[in-house]
């Protein structure tokens, strides 16, 4: 919680700025609508956090989201009875994509940046080939309920967001969280002290794949079928994580802060839109945040002589 | 915790920068209420706007096209016929087609329609098509490659207007060229086939809103991207109509053609203004998302325009919308094949072949809505009588 405080402070400032232009966000319904919109990105950021904190990247989540939405529409094709089997299939497909990313990264020693970039290209190419740019089929009302409907006044996506957040925090407090953090901080030391580094990393990638599946269900539900459903989400997720103060390279940062970073990023986008600034600027903003945050981290390093005890590369 | 604090500092600077440097930009679209006293909040006119073309297109809407009434793809508005005797030759013919791309549902539907049209004609011995995948450089080399293949006629659907002009001009010297959809900046092609055009599309939608939305009503205009000629014409025509009307355009936003973004933008505007009284769109692909934003907010859906895509037509019927759907008909993909054969047989064709561009209204909706077709199918494909319908277009026999 302590580590999430700075980003929460930023979030409060941004929300206040939004409230000045649009007081509706202060009302429960307005705030819930905002959270509903942020939910897919927050879930993705939680998944991305596990991968980043273990010292890797997952660039494939955006195209994984697109692929899952397009596949869901094609398989459901408006048939209500297909909803639950397809939902289960999407979850499995997400885990599977994460498994492939994780195994290639750990067992074949291909840098995760390359593995997941490759996965991004493979998936987006496959989606294009399969659909020819025009997705077929339709999502059922039952499927869309998760992104559109709610339990009384509370949208399902906000409930899913809360459950995901709780699960992520619980995971980081469990043994898995400690070994994951240790792996990201110093892989060799972790391995020498008995952590099954490969298994931990593979599990982190699978969590990221799972989060992409959940985000796909929420996004597909919110907006329907689109061949651009997940466009750019991988960068938004990484920006959110970095914004939450999680260190690229691993070993530092809290999952709560990462998720708060996602909400903050969404708030920033909302603010930009409120002030009539083109959506095209979102990528620019994300780029500036990533570079600035990493640079800010690097500038700090020399001032503290031993910021990272036993860095993996320094030790080898 | 040094690092998060550093990040906070960076972010604070960013936010501050965002608030100061971008302020002027912010005053253009969203400060519309202040400006509405003299303007309607539509901003400056597009630099793509050409008054003469605008007037011509709006005039063409009321003209009766010549040709068979049940085959709009063979009709032409005010045609000036051109003699093609010099191209006359005996069949079988080898037709070639340089396609800009098949990367969106509109081009998908059109491309299938064209292939089916080709299969109707026994005199076409061979049909060679190259897909430029949305790249100008590939299309330039495609056109050069096709010239070496012994084509009797070359059909071109240019990816962009200016860049493809020299390539098309070079091909004109060797084979009769037929251009459709987007044009080129040379009149060397034998014929240029197009529906009436973007001005008519934008004006059809805007005039509908001007009629249906109460005086002083708040209209939100949603555009895909700035700077694309075919989309700029649609918006610039709508701007002219809105400027003349008593409507208040409270926002002009870019959606990137993304459904989630469209829905978010519309939700934001609903929140900010309490309600929106009309929605204008430069393309129908995300119209359903815009409609859903009102539904999810528990509001009545105001007058809106979409396009002739099945998902919108279905929503229109199911939700009883007050709507109109201007079209950019996909049946225009049949015409180049017909034109090529006419040219090779030495028959006259119009120099500029203006196809009719109907709009779907609540009266004609039942005729265009075909529930067995996929959601992104375009109703004005003119493909119902073609072999392979509806399966080749992704539909189910029903």
TrEMBL record, chain A:
Compartment(s) of residence: Cell membrane
Membrane topology: Multi-pass membrane protein
Entry's Gene Ontology molecular function annotations: transmembrane transporter activity
Coiled-coil annotated residue ranges, if any: none
Pfam families in alphabetical order: BPD_transp_2
InterPro entries with a match to the protein in the record: ABC_transp_permease (IPR001851)
Membrane-spanning ranges: 82-100, 112-133, 153-172, 202-223, 229-248, 255-277, 283-301
Keywords: Cell inner membrane, Cell membrane, Membrane, Transmembrane, Transmembrane helix, Transport
Main location group: membrane
GO CC annotations, alphabetized: plasma membrane
UniProt name for this protein: Autoinducer 2 import system permease protein LsrD
Gene source species: Nonomuraea fuscirosea
TrEMBL record, chain B:
Example of a GO cellular component annotation carried by this entry: cell envelope
Family: Belongs to the bacterial solute-binding protein 2 family.
Alphabetical list of InterPro entries matching this protein: Peripla_BP_I, SBP_2_dom
Signal peptide: 1-25
Keyword presence, Signal: yes
Keywords tagged on the record: Signal
Domain Periplasmic binding protein: 97-348
One Gene Ontology term of the molecular function aspect: carbohydrate binding
Bias-annotated ranges (Low complexity): 24-42
Pfam families: Peripla_BP_4
Cross-referenced PROSITE patterns: PROKAR_LIPOPROTEIN
Record region (Disordered): 22-42
Organism: Nonomuraea fuscirosea
Keyword field contains Cytoplasm: no
Cell compartments where the protein resides: Cell envelope
The name this protein goes by in its record: Ribose transport system substrate-binding protein
């Amino acid at each position: 919680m302590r580590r999430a405080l700075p980003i929460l402070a930023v979030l409060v400032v941004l929300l206040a700025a939004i409230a000045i232009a649009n007081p509706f966000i202060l009302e429960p319904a307005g705030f819930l609508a905002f959270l509903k919109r942020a939910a897919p990105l927050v879930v993705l950021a939680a998944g991305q956090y596990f991968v980043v904190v273990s010292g890797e990247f997952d660039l494939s989540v955006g195209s994984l989201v697109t692929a899952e939405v397009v596949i869901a529409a094609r398989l459901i094709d408006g048939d209500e009875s297909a909803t639950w089997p397809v939902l289960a299939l999407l979850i499995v497909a997400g885990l599977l994509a994460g498994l492939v990313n994780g195994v290639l990264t750990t067992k074949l020693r291909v840098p995760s940046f390359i593995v997941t970039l490759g996965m991004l290209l493979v998936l987006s190419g496959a989606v294009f080939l399969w659909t020819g740019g025009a997705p077929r089929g339709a999502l059922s009302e039952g499927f869309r309920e998760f992104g559109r409907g709610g339990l009384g006044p509370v949208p399902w996506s906000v409930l899913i967001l809360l459950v995901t957040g709780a699960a992520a925090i619980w995971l980081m407090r469990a043994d898995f969280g400690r070994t994951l953090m240790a792996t990201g901080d110093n892989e060799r030391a972790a391995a020498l002290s008995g952590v099954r580094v490969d298994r931990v990393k593979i599990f982190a990638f699978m969590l990221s794949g799972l989060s992409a599946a959940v985000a796909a269900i929420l996004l597909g539900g919110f907006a329907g079928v689109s061949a651009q459903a997940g466009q750019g989400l991988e960068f938004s997720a990484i920006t959110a994580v970095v914004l939450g103060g999680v260190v690229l390279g691993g070993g530092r940062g809290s999952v709560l802060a990462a998720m708060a970073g996602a909400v903050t990023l969404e708030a920033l986008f909302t603010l930009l839109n409120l002030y009539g600034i083109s959506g095209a600027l979102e990528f620019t903003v994300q780029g500036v945040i990533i570079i600035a945050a990493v640079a800010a981290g690097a500038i700090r390093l020399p001032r503290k002589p031993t910021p990272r005890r036993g860095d993996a590369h320094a030790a080898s | 915790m040094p690092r998060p604090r550093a990040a906070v500092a960076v972010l604070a600077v960013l936010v501050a920068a965002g608030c100061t440097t971008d302020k002027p930009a912010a005053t253009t679209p969203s400060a519309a209420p202040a400006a509405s006293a003299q303007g309607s909040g539509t901003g400056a006119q597009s630099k793509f706007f050409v008054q003469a073309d605008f007037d011509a297109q709006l005039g063409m809407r009321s003209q009766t096209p010549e040709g068979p009434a049940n085959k709009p793809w063979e009709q032409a508005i005010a045609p000036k016929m051109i003699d093609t005797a010099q191209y006359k030759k005996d069949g079988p013919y080898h037709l070639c087609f340089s396609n800009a791309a098949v990367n969106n549902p509109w081009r998908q539907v059109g491309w299938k329609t064209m292939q089916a049209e080709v299969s109707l004609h026994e005199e076409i011995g061979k049909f060679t098509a190259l897909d430029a995948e949305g790249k100008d450089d590939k299309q330039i080399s495609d056109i050069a490659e096709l010239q070496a293949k012994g084509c009797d006629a070359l059909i071109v659907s240019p990816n962009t207007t200016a860049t493809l002009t020299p390539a098309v001009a070079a091909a004109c010297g060797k084979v009769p060229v037929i251009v459709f959809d987007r044009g080129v900046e040379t009149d060397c092609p034998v014929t240029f086939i197009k529906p009436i055009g973007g001005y008519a599309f934008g004006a059809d939608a805007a005039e509908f809103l001007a009629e249906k939305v109460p005086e002083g009503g708040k209209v939100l205009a949603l555009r895909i991207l700035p700077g694309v000629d075919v989309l700029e014409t649609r918006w610039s025509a709508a701007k002219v109509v809105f400027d003349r009307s008593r409507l208040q355009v409270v926002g002009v936003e870019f959606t990137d053609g993304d459904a989630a973004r469209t829905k978010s933008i519309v939700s934001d505007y609903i929140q900010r203004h309490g309600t929106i009284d009309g929605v204008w769109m430069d393309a129908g692909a995300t119209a359903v998302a815009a409609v859903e934003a009102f539904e999810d907010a528990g509001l009545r859906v105001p007058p809106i325009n979409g396009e002739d895509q099945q998902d919108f037509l279905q929503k229109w019927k199911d939700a009883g919308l007050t709507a109109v759907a201007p079209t950019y008909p996909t049946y225009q993909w049949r015409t180049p094949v017909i034109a090529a054969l006419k040219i090779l047989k030495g028959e006259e064709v119009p120099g500029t072949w203006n196809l009719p561009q109907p709009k779907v209204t609540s009266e004609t909706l039942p005729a265009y809505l075909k529930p067995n077709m996929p959601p992104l199918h375009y109703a004005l494909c003119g493909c119902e009588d073609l072999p392979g319908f509806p399966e080749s277009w992704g539909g189910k026999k029903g």
